Amino acid sequence: MTRREELRSASEALREVGSRARVYVSMPIIDGITPRVLVDSPGPVVEDAHGLPRKDGIFRLDEVGLSPMDHVALYGDGVFEGMLIRNRSIFLYREHMDRLDASMEKVSVALPISRYDLTERLLETCRAVDLGDGPGYIRLVVTRGMGDLGINPRKCVTPTIFAIVSTIRLYAPEAYERGIRLGLSRQMRRPDRAILDPNIKSNNYLNNVLALIEGTADQGLAEALMLTHSGYVAEATVDNIFSVRKYPGWEHDPSKVEVRTPSSEYCLVGITRGTVMELAEKRGYKVIVRDDLLPIDLVGPEKECFMTGTGAGVMPITAIEAVTVGNGAPGPVTRQLVEDINALMDDPANGLGLDTPSEELAAIIDDVQTAID
Length: 373
Ligand SMILES: Cc1ncc(COP(=O)(O)O)c(C=O)c1O
Known about the structure:
By secondary structure, the chain is an alpha+beta fold.
């Protein structure tokens, strides 16, 4: 694809998102700073947990803006979650909200409204989007908030929250049949906890963006593997990675199948990663967390490889760069796990229904009110 074709395709994709998506926005009211559309919108002004006046609303994407003074825009200072909607249910909603809490705690940001209120408004936003029969996606962001031009978070007001709800289709159905080839980022590495904890799901993705640029320089690649500083397998740029090793007799004895994934020291504790580990255990496979997996361990005969993520689900990997995994086609263990996760995602009981009445929400939502100092 030429750059011109890429740009045209990107504009078309954006237009499509713009025609469907809705965004929930919640901000403190600061005269001269908070976008007027929000200030002038009909909703009530409420007091947030710190007594600041605050307002929220549900808008089309072209109706509202983020303040240029928000530290998520200035410094990438914010945390987020990406959630999947299937069959009018937000898959593993509680797990995503708990991980959001964990990220917020690590960066000393607290939700300025209750989890209950946020959930109610998120569901309202989802219901305002025409998802058709396909899956939907929620990008929920909690920012440091609006502040002056310095990086000091103490000079920021309470967090901005926004959530984009839209349709999603990351990979074509054929990709799950054939598998995809993964690139490898050699120069750009996954930082460890001493640099940027992989378990802060922050809006600072520049490292991953650079790894993606480097690792997908070959046409047709969509994802790239990242290594740790020492050269061990960490994760892909927005997905976790798994390697399957099959020992003689595995066809009749699932305990002879090892499903290996890197340690969470090196990668995000993916919600899909955790779900797949449980699914693999249920199948009788041995699940092993390793901190010394090398790229060479993922390829070759008697191996399978796949990546996991909210958008990708379980995606078979059939080659890393030019080196084939197994026989170059998705293997039986991977196919089984693709089927298993699809069955889980399709079952609305595994998530929060979009049409859950407000009266029932209280019983479902744990109101975790993170302490604010
Ligand atoms: C760096 C990174 N690793 C892994 C994942 C997969 O996590 P999950 O399964 O929770 O979507 C993501 C998803 O956003 C990610 O950004």
